[in-house]
Amino acid sequence: MRTFLIRLLIFSALFAGLVVIAAYKLAQPGEMDYVGGIVVKHKRLNEIKGPRLIFAGGSNMAFGLDSKAVEDSLKIPVVNLALHGGLGLDFMLEELKDVVRNGDVVILSPEYFLEAGRYELDAAVAAFMPASKKYFKHDFYTVFKYGVESRFTQIGYNRDYLMARWRKRNAPPERDYAAEVYSHKAFNSYGDVVAHLDLPSYGAPKVPLKLYAGYWDGIPKINAASRILAQRGVKFYFVFPAFCASSFNNNAATIANLEATLHRDLQIPVISGPQDFVYPDTLYYDSYYHLTKTGRNLRTQQLIKLVQPLTAQLHGEKMLLSNR
Amino acid sequence: MVFNSFEFALFLPIVFILYWLVAKGSLLFQNLVLLAASFVFYGMWDYRFLFLLFFSILLDYTSGLQIHAAKTPRARQWWLFASIVINLGFLFFFKYYNFFVDSFSDLLRTFGLQPHVWTLKIILPVGISFYTFHGLSYVIDIYREKVTPTRNFTNYALFVSFFPLLVAGPIERATHLLPQIEQPRRFELSKAADGLRQILWGLLKKMVIADGCAFYSNQIFDNPHTYSGSTLVVGAVLFAFQIYGDFSGYSDMALGIARLFGFELLRNFAYPYFSRDIAEFWRRWHISLSSWFKDYVYIPLGGSREGRFKAIRNTFIIFLLSGFWHGANWTFILWGGIHALYFLPLLLANRNRKNMEIVAQGRRLPSVPEAWQMVRTFALVTFAWIFFRAESMQEVAVYISGIFSASLIEMPVIFPKGLLLLTALFLLAEWQGREYPYALANLEPRWPRPARWALYTVLLFCLILLKSEQQQFIYFQF
Known about the structure:
Chain B: Keywords: Acyltransferase, Cell membrane, Membrane, Transferase, Transmembrane, Transmembrane helix. The structure holds 2 protein chains of 2 kinds. By secondary structure, chain A is α/β, with parallel strands linked by helices. Chain A has 14 helices and 6 strands. Chain A has helices at about 1-20, 30-35, 40-45, 60-65, 65-75, 90-100, 120-130, 140-170, 175-180, 220-230, 245-250, 250-265, 295-305, 310-324; strands at about 55, 80, 105-110, 235-240, 245, 280. Chain B is an all-alpha fold. Chain B folds into 2 domains: about 5-185, no CATH class; about 190-275 and about 355-475, no CATH class. In chain B, about 70% of the residues lie in helices and about 0% in strands. Chain B has helices at about 5-20, 25-45, 50-70, 75-110, 130-145, 155-160, 165, 175-180, 190-220, 230-260, 280-285, 285-300, 310-325, 330-350, 370-390, 395-405, 415-430, 445, 450-465. In chain B, α2 (about 25-45) crosses α6, α3 crosses α4 and α9 runs antiparallel to α10 (about 230-260).
C-alpha cells in the first residue's frame, strides 16, 4: 500500500508540474474579453437618473438591438444590459435585481432554454467589474473546482493558439474580425454590440441547432425574480430571442411547446411570439442568435412596436419628474 | 455523480483512504464504508430514489431468506413469485407505464376510438434496470439452490448497490460477487495499478472517442432529412463508435474502480467490433446482460434443447426482451428483432458457435476472409444501431430512406478526418490488446516503468487536449 501511494504521489506531482507549465497563459478566447462590455453598460445605467427602459438577456439582444433608435422613437432612455448567454440566467436575474429601481421597464430576452452560467465567463466579468461577483456563486468549492479545471482549459486554448499561429505562418496577414467583435471595445455607449455591423457576415451555422425539449427550469427562476422586481415598482416583460429560420423550423414543435408553457407558467407578460424575431439565416452574423446590421434594424423596429404601449408608465414618471 | 466528473475525482480518493487506511483490518467496517459510499454516490443523482433502492434491497434480501427457509415447494414458489412481481412491477411502473398507455391509446385510435389518455410525469430512477436484475438473479439463484442466501444484510445491500456497478452494470451474479464481499480483502499493488490503468483507458474511450463521435453523430441524427445518404452513413458509423466508447468505457472504469477496492467484476465487453458473426458479437457485447437473459430466460424456456423451432422462438424472445429492456420505445424492440433476424441464418445452419476463439489469435493481422467477416458484421451491427439511436419510427424511416437514395454516392458533408484518424488509432490499440481483458492490460511487465509513466502522461494529455463536450452516459437512461 505504501509503495502504491508513494508511486502515485510521485507520478501525480510530476504530472501536475507538467500541467502547470503547459497551462502558462499564452492566449484566451475572445469571449473572455467581450464580457468586459459590462462596464459600459453599468456606466450608462448609473448615468441615467430617472426611470429607464432596460433590455436584458444574452447576446441575441446585445447583437440584435439599436438602442439609440428605440430611444429616439420612444423618447425614453434605453440601456442594453444584455451581454452573453454563457453567463447564465441566474447571473442576468441577479444583475437585474441589483440595478433596477422604481419606474424601470425591463424586457428580458434570454436564449432558448438558457441554463446556469459558465463559471469561467462569470469570473471573467468579475475581472472587469469586481462588483459583479455578487451575481454568481463563488463559494470555496466552486472556486477550487474552477481553479483546477481552468488549468486544463488553458492548455486547450494554448493548443488552439499555437495551431492558429502555425497555420498562419506562411499566409499573408489578415484582418482578425473575430478579435474585433469579441472584445470589450465592441460596444457603443448604450451597450449594443456595433463592431460587427459593417463587417462581412458568415451567416447562421449550416447545421441547424437542436433544442432541448424538456421543461425549462428558467421559468421558476424568472418568476422568483419577477416578484422582487414588482416589489421595487419595476415592470417586467418577456420576449423571445432572435433566432435563425433554419433552426426555428427544425425546432418548431419544441418552441411551440415552450410558448404554451410560458403562457401557462410564467408570471410576467410574454409580449412577443417566438416567430416575431425569426429571420432568414443570411441575416445572422456568425451564430444562430447574432443578427447582422439589417437583421438588427428589423428586430429593433419590431421591438419598438411591441414596447411602445408599455412605456406609457415611463412617460408618466418623466412628466412627474419634470413637474417637480 | 459520473465517473468522469470533478466530484468523482474527489469522492474516489476519499473512499479509497477510508477503505484501506481507516477501516483496515475490519471486513465489516470496510463493507460499511463501501455501502455508505454507494448510497452517497446514488443519492447525489436524486436522494428520493434511495428509498426505492433500499426497498428493493430489503425485498430481495427477505425473499431470499424466506425461499431458503420455506418448508414446502408452494411456499418457495410463492416467495419467488412475489419477489419477481414486485421487482418487475417497479420496473414496469417507472420505465414502461407511459409506453403501454400511449401504445394502447394509439391502437384504440386506429379503430376510430378517442380514448382518454392518462399518462404520468415519471422520472426514471437511474440504474433501476440494473439493480432490479441484480436482485432478481439473486432470488432466482436461491430458488434454484445455486446460492445460499446471506444473513448479513450489509453484505447483501453492498452486493446490489456497490457504486462502480450500481447505475450501469456490469450486472453481477451472487455466485460471483457475494463471496468476494464476504471474504477479507488484501491490498495488492499490481491489482490496484492495473485498476488505475483500466480507469484511464475507460476515460479515454468515453471522453475522447465517445464524446467526440457524439458531437457529430448527434448533429446528423438530429437532422437526418438535411443530409445526404453518405453523411447519414458517416453518422451511423460514428454512433457505432460512440456507443461502444461510451458503454465499454464506462464498464472499464467500473471494473478498474472495483479493482482498486480488491474486487473483480464480470467482464462486460470483449472487443465486440472484431466479431466475425452476430453470434460472436453477442458473446462479446454487454456480456453480463446477454448471459443474464441466457441463464434466466433462454434456458428456462428450453434453450436449444427442444428442437430447432423452439430454439428460434427462444432466440427471438430474448432479443425482443433485450430490446425492450433498453427502453420503452418501439425502436428498441425493433433493434432487438433485427438482431434476432441476423441470428436466424446462423441458427438454421447450426453455425452459431463457430467463432469461439479470439480472432487471429497469435497473429498480427487477420486473414482476408476474417477481415471481410469482421467488416460485414460491423456493417450489420451499425445498420441496427440506427434503430437504437433514432427517437421514433418516423426518424428511422427518414434515416434509412435517406441512406438508400441517390445521394449515397455524394461526398459526405460531415467527415471529421481528425476524429476518424483518432478512432482508427484507438481501434489499432484495441486490436493489439485483443487477447487481454482491455487494451492496456499487457503493459506490465513488458514495458519498463519509465516507459509506462511516459505513456500514461501522454494519454492524460490526450484526455485534456482531445476531450469533447461532456455527454451523458447513454446507458444511464436504461
